[in-house]
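Provenance and format

Records in this collection were gathered into a single text stream. Each protein contributes a sequence line and a token line. The two records reproduced below are adjacent in the stream.
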Amino acid sequence: MMHEDPQAKRRSRRAAVIMPARCRSRSGFVDRGTISNISLEGCRFESHALTLHVGDLVVVTPDGLEGLCGQVRWVHGHSAGVEFQRPFYAPVFEHLCQRHAPFVALGHARHAQPLRRAA
């Protein structure tokens, strides 16, 4: 039995990140949380106070950036998948992936990048 690679169905690369952000719903509710993965077309937003529903229109605002309008495509526990209305500008996406890459324990990833120093 062959298992399909979940990345094969995606339109673009999805990168693991740890990026503080806010998410504002159409009703005006604002929640602070974390973007835990991101692609050119969307992201996963995580928060313990998550009150989003599939179909909700939201604005996700990563710290230091303008808000990204999108629609909630799925909700599971404290996580929600948001599809952006317009794809991310590729050079900004690549910069965010490098700047907010999660720390990787040595020996736990095949292609681990060098660890970043904490400030």
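Adjacent record:
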Amino acid sequence: MGTYNASAAGTGYIATYDPSSKKVTKLTAKGFDSPRGLSPGGMDIVPSTHNPDELTIYVINTRPPYVDLDPDLPPDIREAKRDEIASARTKEQGPDPSIEVFRYILGGDSIQHVATWTDGEVMISPNDVVGLPDGKGAWFTNPLPYRTEIVRVAFLNHSRQLLMPIYLCAKQPNVVSVVLQQKLSSIGFCGSDGCKPAATGLYGINGIARSPFHSNDTFYVAHTFLGGVSLFTRQSDNRLLLDEHINTGERI
């Protein structure tokens, strides 16, 4: 996040690639008219339970902060002002992430926007997402406990194992929080009823996947700092319960 550029945000898009023709098709996002645009990060694509040709696309959108300007301003001045204010707010507050939900029919040249999910308390620094069929909900990983710009410095010992990550929050440049194996990462869940924590108190996590055999509801979460993969089981309220940790000996 330390390199986030608010003025360049919002220009992303979703595309398909046909390996036989090597053709890339930029998909038109129908119904998605956010002035902050799309700044895609992690993404998951899930087939419908009713129609395998209908896909739900979940996208992490690392949006700049919202800026409300006078609509009577000339368009060029309004855009310049929006970029200026958004850049300043990003340095103070960090970006304002969301999960965008789209529906896509295989072979089409457009996607239909279905929903935007966001929560300032739960969706902090999302970098990966894994969803349910038919747009019913999605889990996402928060590697960091802050939205503001962060510099991470890792001290390694001779065996290349992580000893100590140090976080420096740019909003308070004189305050260094030294974190020695503290559990600051989290997993959140969002759906039509809102967002909530799914698992908290985790070491530096970096991505999430769900078993293709959905009947067992096993989730796999990668760890950057300590190395390894944690296995979680979905509960009836969509929270995730830690079952096992597999140590790989390497950061993932």
